[in-house]
Design brief:
Elements: E1 5-11, E2 44-48, E3 63-65, E4 85-89, E5 93-96, E6 102-106, E7 112-116, E8 147-154, E9 160-163, H1 170-177, E10 195-201, E11 204-210, H2 229-232, E12 237-243, H3 249-263, E13 272-277, H4 284-292, E14 298-299, H5 308-318, E15 321-325, E16 328-332
Parallel strand pairs: 1-3, 2-4, 9-11, 9-12, 12-13, 13-14
Antiparallel strand pairs: 1-8, 2-7, 5-6, 5-8, 10-11, 15-16
C-alpha cells in the first residue's frame, strides 16, 4: 500500500508555571522572593527520515502530543524543560495548514521543522520585586502549547520519472535498469502505486520512479495516474516510455506531453528522453515516425534487455548525481 496524504494533529507542551516562594534560612530574616521560573514545554518537530519511503511508515497515529514543562522551584530554580517530540516523515513531505497554505517543504536529509512550539515557562515571583514591593506574591502560569491540524502530502524525490500509457513496459524497464521491483503483468494498470528504483552507474547512483500509467484526460482526473502526476514534479528528468509496437506510438508521446502541460506547465519544460520500447516485436514504423518529427529515441526491449545499457548511460548523462561520501553529501553535476 502506498500512502501519500495524511492529516495529523500536533500539540506542543504547556510551559511550566512560575512559583511564589520566599527565601528561608536561619539568621537571614526577610530573605526575599526566590520563586523560580517554569520550564519550556516540548516542541513537536517534523524530521526527515531517509528510511521512510511513504507516509504509511508513520503508522496510524493521528495525534502527536509533547510533554509539558515542569514548574519552577524555590531558591530561584528553573523548572525542567520538556523533551521535544520528534515526528519522523519521509523525504519530500509537504506540510500544509487547514486552509491549504504550504508551511514547510521537507526535501533534505535530516531536515527539521517545528510544527508546534512549546509554551514558554511562567515567571516566578523573583522577577516582580521592586523597591516599593519587596515581597511580591505574584507569579505567572506557563504559556499554553500550540494545537494545529496539519495536512501532509508526499511528493516522491527521484531523479528520473517514467511516464507512459498503461502496459507500455515501464515496470519491466525499471526491473531491467534498477533495483526497483514493481509488479509486472500483461494487462493495463499493473502498477497501482509509484515505485522507486536505484540505478548504479560509474561509481554513483540515481533514483528512478515508476509512475502508474496515464490516460488521455489524466490531468482532469481520468484513470489512475492523476493522483500521482504530482510526483513527477519533483523529478529532474522525464523518461517517456512509448510502446513502439502500437500503431499510434508517436500520438501516445504527444498526448502524454499535453497531459503533463495541462497538469502543470513547468512539467512540459523539464528535460526528457524517449525510450521506444518493445523492439523485440518489430517497431520499424514507429522509429521512422519519430525520426520524421526529429525526436531522438533510445530503442529498448524490456524483455530481451536490448538497449537497456544505452538507456542507463543516457539517463546517467542527463541527471545530476548525488554521491554519499564519508564527509557527507556532496553534489556533482553530470
Amino acid at each position: 500500500m502506498f500512502l501519500d496524504e495524511k492529516t495529523i494533529e500536533v500539540r506542543s507542551g504547556k510551559g511550566g508555571d512560575g512559583i511564589c516562594s520566599f527565601h528561608r534560612e536561619k539568621f537571614v530574616p526577610l530573605g526575599g522572593p526566590d520563586g523560580g521560573d517554569g520550564g519550556r514545554g516540548g516542541h513537536v518537530i517534523l524530521q526527515v527520515n531517509e528510511q521512510y519511503s511513504t507516509l504509511l511508515d508513520m503508522g496510524n497515529t493521528h495525534l502527536y502530543k509533547a510533554e509539558s514543562g515542569k514548574p519552577g522551584g524555590a531558591k530561584r530554580c528553573t523548572g525542567l524543560s520538556a523533551d521535544d517530540l520528534i515526528v519522523n516523515v519521509p523525504r519530500g513531505t509537504i506540510v500544509k495548514d487547514a486552509e491549504g497554505r504550504i508551511l514547510a517543504d521537507l526535501t533534505e536529509p535530516g531536515q527539521r521543522w517545528i510544527a508546534a512550539k512549546g509554551g514558554k515557562g511562567g515567571m516566578g515571583n523573583q522577577h516582580f520585586a521592586t523597591p516599593s514591593l519587596q515581597a511580591p506574591r505574584k507569579c505567572t502560569p506557563g504559556e499554553k502549547g500550540e494545537v494545529r491540524e496539519l495536512f501532509l502530502e508526499l511528493k516522491l524525490m527521484a531523479d528520473v520519472g517514467l511516464v507512459g500509457f498503461p502496459n507500455a513496459g515501464k515496470s519491466s524497464l525499471v526491473n531491467k535498469i534498477s533495483s526497483g521491483r514493481p509488479k509486472v503483468g500483461d494487462y493495463p494498470f499493473t502498477t497501482l502505486e509509484p515505485v522507486l528504483g536505484i540505478v548504479q552507474m560509474n561509481g554513483h547512483s540515481f533514483v528512478v520512479a515508476d509512475i502508474p500509467g496515464l490516460l488521455e484526460g489524466a490531468s482532469e482526473g481520468k484513470g489512475l495516474g492523476h493522483q500521482f502526476l504530482k510526483h513527477i514534479e519533483r523529478t529532474h528528468t522525464l523518461l517517456f516510455v512509448i510502446d513502439g509496437f502500437a500503431e499510434n506510438a508517436y500520438e501516445q508521446f504527444t498526448i502524454l506531453k499535453d497531459e503533463l502541460k495541462a497538469f502543470h506547465p513547468k512539467l512540459a519544460e523539464k528535460p526528457y528522453l524517449i525510450a521506444l520500447n518493445k523492439c523485440d516485436l518489430g517497431i520499424d514504423a514507429a522509429i521512422k515516425e519519430f525520426k520524421k518529427h526529429r525526436q531522438k529515441v533510445i530503442i529498448t526491449s524490456a524483455v530481451t534487455g536490448e538497449g537497456c545499457h544505452d538507456l542507463q548511460q543516457a539517463l546517467d548523462d542527463a541527471v545530476p548525481h548525488v554521491q554519499k561520501k564519508k564527509s557527507g553529501w556532496t553534489k556533482k553535476n553530470g
